[in-house]
Design a protein that fits this description.
- Three copies of one chain form a homotrimer.
- Chain A contains twelve helices and 19 strands.
- Chain A is α/β, with parallel strands linked by helices.
- Chain A folds into three domains: about 250 residues, Zn peptidases (Aminopeptidase); about 90 residues, Glucose Oxidase, domain 1; about 80 residues, Arc Repressor Mutant, subunit A (Orthogonal Bundle).
- The relative contact order of chain A is 0.13.
- The mean pLDDT of chain A is about 95.
- Chains in contact: A-B, A-C, B-C.
- The interface between A and C is medium-sized, with 23 and 19 residues.
Chain lengths: ~425, ~425, ~425
């Protein structure tokens, strides 16, 4: 298990330096690395300008180099040094201008003076550089040169899609994004955990099918939904958006729009048992793809599972969200929580006893002959499972009602089913 | 706005000295003064003894003068000095009697020794005087003369009715009473606020129609309901009983019988945003006309909106409930709260977005180019309005869900409707 | 009333010494004593080995004598001294064995070293003795003689059944058990209170019929349900399991499986008004016959009413649960609480007013002419009863809603019905 956690971290470290954006070579390079681990991943390309709901897909952005030359001839804000220096989707420029003019195109973060902020301008043509506030304050007067070797052209927007077939057409959605440059928690943690989760899901027979998406944020989910909405509405029983799942300071999730779906209950139950201080954020604080999946008319039961929520940790959207923020423990904690939730989803049926009144447990070896505290806890759990599995509530509700953890209940349910005392209701 | 608050106070001051009762000249004089401001007000008269549900309308009471002459020849408890001195509906008397006998007909308030209490005997023929407990204690022994020049006769019970037509037959009820003598908060505050509210309602086009009643308490609402029940049950979407709405010590309301109507939610939302310490009184503590409007089988969604609730402030039902208890600020605060509630009722539809998934906001000028804290708050509110307006919940529920004030939400809803992004559901 | 409480205690004291078990002479002797007080009690016998649901009835157990002879020739653990010394359903033995061997058959309670524990082995053939831990520690090495003069044979399992017919076929179940040997709170309190409750129920005309059962725990209720399930499911409106209802340290009840039945509300309301510190135990902590009555597919609305709950008081299932634990006050408190609950069940209809709007109270003598605090409380209660009896909620819900005790409300309801102002809805 620990070994897997380290592998997740190693993948994150490999993906970290790649200069990603909504579109372009960085996205393709990222998807190719993931495909080495998940050979069945299909990589798709959507032409620029494709209509999807109220939106259309953006032009492809190619960035080769970008920097500023100071009056004294020093190169600063070099793209090659840190890909956060260039505002995402900056148009090509070769200009000279005084400092005052240049400042209109420079973004800093005065509240964190040694950090480079992360800025994009996807939906309005523009250009700019991001530097630390310290560097900004030290800029000398005089004439500056600006050089951006970029291109905005009709190309494609890429994404990856992996379908793992289960017994049922009903499916679970796992979605993560691959469109931020060198950000660790708020980017590479998501695809890294998703990759190893896909690997684990595929490792045994599943009741549900799994739809696993590696997409650019916002426009990626909007495009994908515009092409698969009907089937996904029909079949999706639960879903996860994976983001910021690599640090080890918290466990949290954003509920579905109304907070009343099976997956909300499973997330609450699972995270509470992992960390009594876990945080549930209401949907009104959501801002990633879970927002699109839950939109009215889309209405998929999708939550975001996170360690520290985006926007809630100090390094968010700065150059400080680097590999030191995430760890094998942080990534591994998120990975294990997701595994527990998926096991719960797979077992979460409405069950019903097969005997009227209570079955006799003693003659079936289900009643302890020597009683210890632990065996009595189990008998109590077993009897309460039989009492509350009356065909009206699913297993996660039964667990909450009887005050037992689903991880403890699953083996008892298996035993009762094996003995013919419990059956699944339609 | 302040000017209107002063006008409300001026009207209250003008109505204050008039000797009102359930019936009679004082009621008619009060209605005539209101009609000067609301020319469309219709003044009705109902003959004494008219059956209405389990009740019948009372005889008309005319009172010209009343006083007691002490053994030493001093006139006390003079009606002309304070109309609270005479028990409402006292029968005519011209008697001589010793102090002991007289005391059976004198009402005082030992807990507030310098105040004259307010007492009536509407439904049982009787007579009496109200004086301060201090005056009562100083009464000398000896023979007293009692003089009451009153009349109980078959006349009429009057009330005022104003219908303001809106686009819809659906209507909002505003009811207030005009049957107490010189009491300020517990009488003239209600009709004074109702008058200027009617004026404001009529000043622009409304979705709903408004039924505004100036009636004697209890028997007035019972009579009116007995004659208009079917139509009111069919059309009334919300209603207000206005009473004790002139002091500035509190904001409060009495909920509908089950506390679960649209108007309850609007009152909670509005008053909470005006005064975090506002009080909601459950219906079991109600005792004014809201009780009749909410009675089983009547079931109109009517609340009482008050500053300090009747029975809950020290001057209630005494001569101390005079003009010093109310103020332009107190009356104005109630007036503004009611305006907010009415604006909320008018806009409280179920809305639904017109685009699948989220619309693109940037291209519609709905996304800030420069972001400040305030613009982001608005974008967050706008996105959450779109997320929760899914046709299932009305706007007040959406506001509660997304944690926004309806006064802030209304202009955003207007903008989204203007841009064709939001529409009213049937 | 006090007299009845003493009688309940006297019955408990008479039943205490009898050596009961699931079956046998002790049970029959107990039922005969109860029949002296309830002549209509029917005593039934079910042959051993009768199938009932997943179970079958046990063999009859006859125990004449049992003891151990120590190496020094002393008789210990004599059945005749305390019937808890012998493990229930022990098979006949006449053996010699060393101390080490004997110890495998001896049960003690180290946490309460001077108490004899209560142990049975109903469903697996076995034998054993129970002694105090102090006595156990003092056992000398050497050879011991074991003597158990018992018999397990095909006989009968007995129970008592009393049906008290009311106006309706709908019925209330009262169930208690008669299968523990000399235990006071956890045995004789139940049948003693049930006996006098049956007597009180039969003393006046009832709306509901009453089914009162004196049965061996677990197998008794399972057998009875297997033979009467259909009728009981159709007719049972509420039910009580009576156990541990004789000490005076607490009031408590175990709710029905979902805690949402009429009887749950009545128990909460009644016990709260008797003792603000009463305890409600969720059904997941249940372990007596209420568990069988509430099982899925059985689904009878049965609660257990107790003073101190089984398993929650220190003397439970030991020789210390003797007559000093219970008292006339303890038994009487439980008895009175049950009477209140039964009165509430009998009156718990949905009522509806007969007049539209509010009736006029004054002309019916229902409005105080002189008002004191007490009369006003009553008028407030009366008006709120009329306001909330709208045919949608039963009386116990109305009482909770209006904040009145049902014991105070019942006479007002009677008066309103007598005056024709309130009627029962279908």
């Amino acid at each position: 298990m620990k070994q897997t956690h380290q592998k997740i971290y190693d993948l994150a470290a490999k993906l970290y330096p790649i200069p990603r954006s909504l579109t372009g070579d960085g996205v393709r390079q990222t998807l190719e690395i993931i495909k080495e681990l998940l050979p069945n991943l299909e990589i798709h390309g959507v032409p620029s300008g494709t209509k999807c709901f109220d939106w259309e897909t953006p032009k492809e952005w190619r960035i080769r180099d970008a920097y500023i030359v100071t009056p004294s001839g020093k190169k600063i804000a070099e793209f090659g040094q840190n890909n956060l220096h260039i505002v995402g989707y900056s148009t090509p420029q070769r200009l000279k201008m005084p400092l005052d003019e240049l400042k209109k195109h420079i973004y800093t973060l005065p509240s964190m003076p040694d950090a480079i902020p992360y800025v994009t301008s996807y939906y309005k043509e523009s250009w700019g550089f991001c530097i630390s506030y310290e560097q900004f304050c030290a800029l000398e007067d005089g004439e500056y040169e600006v050089f951006i070797d970029s291109e905005l052209f009709d190309g494609v927007m890429n994404y990856g899609e992996l379908i793992i077939k289960g017994e049922s057409e009903k499916e679970v959605l796992i979605s993560t994004y691959i469109c931020h440059p060198s950000l660790a928690n708020n980017e590479v943690s998501g695809p890294s955990v998703a990759t190893y989760l896909a690997d684990w899901i595929a490792s045994k027979k599943r009741k549900y099918s799994y739809r696993i998406l590696f997409i650019p944020e916002t426009i990626g989910s909007i495009y994908y939904l515009s092409r698969h909405l009907e089937g996904m509405k029909k079949n999706t029983v639960a879903g996860f958006n994976l983001t910021c799942i690599g640090d080890d300071r918290a466990y949290s999730f954003i509920s579905t729009r109304h907070g009343d779906k099976m997956i909300d209950k499973i997330a609450r139950h699972t995270l509470k048992n992992i960390d009594a201080n876990y945080k549930e954020y209401p949907f009104i604080l959501s801002g990633s793809d879970e927002r699109k999946y839950n939109a009215p008319g889309v209405d998929l039961p999708v939550i975001s599972v996170m360690r520290s929520k985006y926007g809630e940790y100090p390094e968010y959207h700065t150059s400080k969200d680097n590999l030191s923020v995430i760890s094998p423990e942080g990534l591994g904690g998120g990975f294990e929580a997701l595994k527990q939730m998926i096991e719960a989803i797979e077992a979460n049926e409405k069950y019903r006893g097969t005997t009227l009144c209570e079955p006799q447990l003693g003659c079936r070896g289900l009643y302890p002959t020597v009683s210890t505290h632990d065996t009595w806890r189990q008998v109590k759990a077993l009897k309460n499972i039989l009492a509350y599995c009356d065909g009206t509530k699913d297993l996660i509700c039964v667990c909450e009602k009887i005050g037992e953890k689903i991880v403890d209940v699953l083996p008892i349910v298996d035993e009762l089913r094996a003995q013919g005392l419990l059956e699944v209701c339609d």
